[in-house]
């Protein structure tokens, strides 16, 4: 190939550079243990939580196996929630996974020290989450439509409960994040189905609407990176649309103006994930087919914050979900997990 | 366009020629279109001032002479007919008599009252005689078209209300049946009359609008009468019959378009054809009748997205348009609305829907000779999931599967030192043995705590006001606003006295939908329906097998999958191997642009029964695969069910 031709190819690649994500690739995530029993695995593979004998949770720390919980039932199902801080860990226990079907089932929630040998009961609810260096815990009580907050360093003394405005949607799950001690942002939905992103001080109950959607077919998803708040508004109808906004939290209930940093009229899964790699977010985009109905996503979109530059990775199969585990970014398809690596 | 008109004209001419011009002596009917158009515009002006002589027609026809319309005149009529009329004439020669009688045909000069007829007095010649339009129509009715004569009599003013009341709007379920219906309508002498009614009603409405908007102030009495008559016809027909006839008359030349009204048009519009289905749309628009509600949903598809919030279920729903496409392809039998958000165990919803789909009560009745319970078809907003829950409880007790339903209401009678417990559902269905009203009434009567003449009634806590006189006596069951249909704390008040300590609800409903260990191998819903209802099941793993299976009679596919992969827009994955199992019914398939995929019509157990979603087949399989990994026996949970 002559140099002139090489130069041409280089130009073509350069012109595609802003659209195609070369830096990332997707590989199967195959933990050594039976993959269906894995509950958590740290990025360095040193710490694992696994489910054993259908009713026990064990910690494997550098090959040392410690049982941390055993259910009285013959068959239970567990979830482990941990963050990259690795200070605390949360355990969610479903004691009747095959006798009742209920996506808004309240389950038993326990907490413990990360890599600790035991866990303690915290309450009943669903989808627990650790915040602010693992000091705060939140979980949702589906039966009362309330979010419960515990401050772990002063457990029992600094508890809060907020009730959602949502009266109509029985399966709505709010997204919650902490900006600072006792200052949260969360999503809620009103009787017309319009979602909102709200900032609330747990102590004073002062709140600010950061964003309100204008119709029932719009969903809001958000995440935070330091003091950056990123949220997307996803249109779920056929006239699909995705708008990404950015704002910063300046402390003491003060926010910068929200900026619309990215727009696309493609169909997206209405959930965004803050990148474990850098200051960016990831979203899954559905295929470009002309169908009016939703197909499983086949594109991974990475958008830089706050510039809003986007790159996309075309996936070789459709995926249903995107999540993080420690510093891993995982894709889910048919109960199988794939890792996005740099 | 030119070709179409020419083709249609010649096809119609060919058919009519066989009937009208059978005499070889007469001049030819087939001409070039240029020639026909020329005759239509130039010669037709001479057709207005002619001498009418009906007596020759009467006299000669009695003698056995045959009469035929002059070819130029017939050509002109066909050229000026609508394609619907031409199609009618092509399919049914006698419709010429009907259309002439109703004065619906035109020649180059417009409507006409005289028709030139040819007849042959001698062997090698023919003569022309002009007769009145009515005269020729009567001649046809007397000689060849007796049914037309009957139709003309039936549609006379005095018989009209009676005839209209006898019209039945058909609802064909298959394309073949619809085509048959279409051909019957073409051959029916009543069709031109019905189309005449529809046409004049539409014109009457238009005229009324013009009068109302003052565009036509100087309206005379006879015009007023015509308008009123036209409007009366529409009133007699009613909106449903009018809509159906509009479709028929507008598409007499196109059977596919006629049938699309039944198969590819809006699901609710079609369902509202039958008055008995109107109840189904009441929760959607409380202040409108079913027909207007269906129209509104069709015009504003986004109104379904956040609708029926009093019937709690997964929100947002899909648009009315998507839901209509899904329902058109769905084979699930349902004639009720439900509210999965009021049942904590969504497997009950799915099980109840399957039982109602297969008509479990009739099957068990035939098998066990046990008294047949009533059809639990309808319940109001407050008791919206009682139908599916009742069917499941009824089924489980009939087959002695009592462990499935442990949700009970208990009464501690301290005087008699007795405990009464009974399974219940929050329902006031008088015909059901387990409705809360019947259960509580029976318990209180057994314990001698209530007047024998009382029957307990349910009421929401909000509506109950003990200051009002009507609540001072009788038995009232107070239901909180937020409640689960099987596990809710209730208050029971008899003669203004609350039975606070003596009534309690306990237990819940838990049962394996499919087997998950050795104990549940023969003790799960899937096994029970196969055994008790003779429902046949077969594993479904691929799209072709699903397509094939759904062609069977009463076939649906039942599945259990992880909500995070079935409905990823609503349920997010936060941890590895997270799965919220939900069951669902696939009741049909809709083709996708990708031949390797299709959209499954999914009635998930957390969606309201009449709001299914179209979910990519791949997505469905992902959810089942994920559930298989989650299951202790790695069970594949997608099964076809048929009888």
User: DSSP helix count of chain B?
Assistant: 24
Total strands of chain A: the figure is 27
Give helix % range of chain B: 40-55%
Uncertain spans of chain A, ≥5 residues at pLDDT below 50? 9-19
* Structural class estimated from helices and strands of chain A: mainly beta
Indicate the low-confidence ranges of chain B by residue numbers.
1-15, 21-26, 371-379
Number of strands of chain B: 18
What is the molecular shape of chain B?
A: elongated
What multimeric state do the chains show?
A: heterodimer
Largest sheet report of chain A: 7 strands, antiparallel
Shape of chain A: globular
Structural write-up:
- The complex is a heterodimer of chains A (342) and B (643).
- With 342 residues, chain A is mostly beta strands.
- Chain A is 4% helix and 49% strand.
- In chain B, strand 2 (106-107) and strand 3 form a beta hairpin.
- Chain B is elongated.
- In chain B, the strands form 5 sheets. Chain B has a 6-stranded antiparallel sheet, with helices on both faces. Chain B has a 4-stranded mixed sheet with strand order 8-9-10-11, with helices on one face.
- Chain B has 24 helices and 18 strands.
- Helix content of chain B is 42%, strand content 13%.
Question: What is the secondary structure topology, with strand pairs?
Answer:
The complex is a heterodimer of chains A (342) and B (643).
Chain A: H1 3-16, E1 25-28, E2 38-41, E3 47-52, E4 56-61, E5 64-70, E6 77-81, E7 88-94, E8 107-113, E9 120-131, E10 136-141, E11 146-151, E12 160-163, E13 176-180, E14 183-189, E15 195-201, E16 207-212, E17 218-225, E18 228-235, E19 242-248, E20 259-264, E21 273-274, E22 280-286, E23 297-304, E24 310-314, E25 321-325, E26 328-333, E27 336-341
Antiparallel strand pairs in A: 1-27, 2-3, 3-4, 4-5, 6-7, 7-8, 8-9, 9-10, 10-11, 11-12, 13-14, 14-15, 15-16, 17-18, 18-19, 19-20, 21-22, 22-23, 23-24, 25-26, 26-27
Chain B: H1 2-20, H2 33-42, H3 54-62, E1 68-69, H4 71-80, H5 83-91, H6 95-101, E2 106-107, E3 110-111, E4 114-119, E5 127-132, H7 133-143, H8 146-154, H9 160-166, H10 175-187, H11 190-212, H12 221-250, H13 255-263, H14 267-271, H15 290-299, H16 320-329, H17 346-357, H18 360-368, H19 386-398, E6 408-413, E7 418-423, H20 436-446, E8 457-460, E9 475-479, E10 491-494, E11 497-498, E12 503-506, H21 525-532, E13 536-539, H22 543-549, E14 556-562, H23 563-566, E15 581-591, E16 598-604, E17 613-616, H24 617-630, E18 639-642
Parallel strand pairs in B: 8-9
Antiparallel strand pairs in B: 1-4, 2-3, 4-5, 6-7, 6-12, 9-10, 10-11, 13-18, 14-15, 14-18, 15-16, 16-17
Helix pairs in contact in B: 1-4, 1-5, 2-4, 6-7, 6-8, 7-8, 10-13, 11-12, 17-19
């Amino acid at each position: 190939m002559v140099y002139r031709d090489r130069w041409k190819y280089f130009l073509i690649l350069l012109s595609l550079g802003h659209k195609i994500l070369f830096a990332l690739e997707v590989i199967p995530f195959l933990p050594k243990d039976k993959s269906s029993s894995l509950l958590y695995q740290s990025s360095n593979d040193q710490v694992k939580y696994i489910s054993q004998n259908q009713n026990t949770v064990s910690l494997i720390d550098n090959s040392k196996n410690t049982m941390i919980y055993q259910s009285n039932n013959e068959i239970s199902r567990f979830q482990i929630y941990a963050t990259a801080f690795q200070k605390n860990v949360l355990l969610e226990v479903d004691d009747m996974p095959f006798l009742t079907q209920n996506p808004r089932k309240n389950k038993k929630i326990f907490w413990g020290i990360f890599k600790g040998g035991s866990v303690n009961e915290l309450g009943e609810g669903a989808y627990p989450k650790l915040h602010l260096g693992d000091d705060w815990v939140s979980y949702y009580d589906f039966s009362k439509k309330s979010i419960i907050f515990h401050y772990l360093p002063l457990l029992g003394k600094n508890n809060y409960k907020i009730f959602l405005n949502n009266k109509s949607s029985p399966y709505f799950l709010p997204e919650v994040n902490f900006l600072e001690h006792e200052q949260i942002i969360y999503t809620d939905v009103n009787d017309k189905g319009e979602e909102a992103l709200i900032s609330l001080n747990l102590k004073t109950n002062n709140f600010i609407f950061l964003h309100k959607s204008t119709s029932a077919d719009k969903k809001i998803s958000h995440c935070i990176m330091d003091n950056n708040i990123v949220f997307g508004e996803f249109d779920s109808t056929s006239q699909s649309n995705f708008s990404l906004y950015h704002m910063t939290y300046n402390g003491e209930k003060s926010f910068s103006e929200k900026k619309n940093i990215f727009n696309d009229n493609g169909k997206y899964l209405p959930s965004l994930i803050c990148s474990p790699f850098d200051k960016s977010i990831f979203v899954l985009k559905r295929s470009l087919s002309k169908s009016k109905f939703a197909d499983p996503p086949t594109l991974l979109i990475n958008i830089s914050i706050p510039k809003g530059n986007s790159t996309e990775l075309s996936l070789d199969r459709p995926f249903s979900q995107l999540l993080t585990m420690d510093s891993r970014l995982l894709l889910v398809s048919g109960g199988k997990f794939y890792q996005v690596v740099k | 366009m030119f070709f179409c008109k020419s083709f249609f004209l010649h096809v119609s001419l060919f058919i009519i020629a066989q009937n009208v011009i059978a005499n070889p002596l007469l001049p030819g009917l087939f001409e070039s279109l240029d020639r026909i158009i020329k005759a239509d515009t130039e010669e037709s002006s001479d057709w207005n001032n002619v001498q009418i002589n009906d007596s020759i027609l009467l006299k000669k026809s009695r003698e056995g002479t045959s009469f035929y319309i002059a070819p130029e005149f017939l050509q002109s009529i066909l050229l000026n007919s609508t394609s619907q009329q031409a199609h009618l004439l092509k399919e049914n020669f006698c419709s010429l008599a009907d259309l002439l009688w109703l004065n619906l045909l035109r020649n180059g000069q417009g409507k006409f009252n005289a028709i030139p007829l040819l007849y042959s007095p001698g062997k090698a010649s023919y003569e022309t005689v002009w007769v009145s339009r009515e005269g020729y129509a009567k001649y046809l009715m007397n000689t060849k078209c007796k049914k037309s004569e009957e139709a003309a009599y039936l549609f006379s003013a005095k018989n009209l209300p009676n005839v209209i009341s006898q019209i039945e709007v058909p609802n064909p379920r298959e394309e073949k049946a619809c085509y048959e219906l279409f051909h019957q309508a073409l051959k029916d002498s009543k069709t031109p009359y019905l189309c005449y009614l529809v046409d004049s009603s539409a014109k009457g409405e238009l005229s009324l609008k013009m009068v109302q908007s003052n565009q036509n102030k100087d309206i005379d009495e006879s015009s007023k009468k015509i308008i009123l008559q036209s409007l009366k016809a529409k009133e007699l027909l009613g909106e449903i019959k009018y809509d159906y006839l509009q479709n028929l008359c507008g598409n007499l030349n196109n059977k596919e378009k006629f049938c699309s009204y039944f198969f590819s048009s809006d699901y609710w519009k079609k369902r509202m054809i039958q008055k008995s289905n109107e109840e189904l749309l009441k929760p959607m628009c409380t202040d409108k009748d079913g027909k207007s509600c269906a129209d509104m949903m069709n015009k504003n598809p986004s109104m379904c997205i956040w609708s029926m919030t009093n019937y709690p279920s997964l929100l947002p729903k899909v648009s009315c348009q998507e839901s209509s496409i899904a329902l058109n392809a769905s084979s699930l039998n349902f004639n009720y609305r439900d509210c999965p958000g009021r049942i904590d165990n969504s497997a009950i919803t799915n099980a109840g829907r399957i039982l109602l789909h297969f008509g479990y009560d009739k099957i068990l009745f035939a098998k066990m000779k046990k008294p047949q319970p009533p059809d639990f078809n309808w319940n109001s907003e407050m008791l919206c999931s009682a139908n599916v829950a009742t069917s499941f409880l009824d089924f489980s007790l009939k087959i002695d599967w009592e462990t499935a339903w442990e949700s009970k209401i208990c009464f501690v009678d301290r005087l008699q030192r007795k405990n009464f417990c009974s399974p219940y559902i929050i329902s006031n269905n008088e015909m059901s043995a387990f409705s809360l009203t019947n259960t509580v009434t029976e318990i209180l009567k057994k314990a001698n705590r209530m007047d024998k003449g009382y029957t307990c009634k349910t009421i929401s806590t909000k509506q109950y006001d003990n200051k009002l006189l009507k609540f001072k006596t009788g038995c009232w069951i107070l239901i909180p606003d937020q409640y689960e249909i099987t596990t809710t704390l209730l208050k029971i008040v008899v003669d203004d006295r609350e039975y606070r300590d003596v009534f309690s609800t306990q237990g819940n409903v838990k049962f394996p939908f499919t087997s998950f260990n050795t104990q549940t191998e023969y003790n799960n819903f899937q096994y029970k329906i196969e055994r008790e209802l003779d429902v046949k099941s077969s594993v479904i793993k691929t799209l072709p097998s699903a397509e094939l299976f759904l062609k069977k009679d009463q076939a649906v596919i039942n599945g259990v999958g992880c909500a995070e992969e079935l409905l990823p827009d609503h349920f997010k994955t936060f941890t590895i191997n997270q799965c919220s199992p939900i069951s669902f019914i696939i009741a049909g398939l809709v083709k996708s642009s990708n031949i390797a995929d299709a959209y499954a019509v999914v009635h998930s157990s957390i969606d309201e029964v009449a709001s299914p979603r179209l979910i990519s087949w791949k997505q469905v399989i992902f959810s089942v695969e994920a559930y298989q990994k989650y299951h202790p026996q790695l069970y594949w949970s997608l099964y076809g069910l048929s009888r």
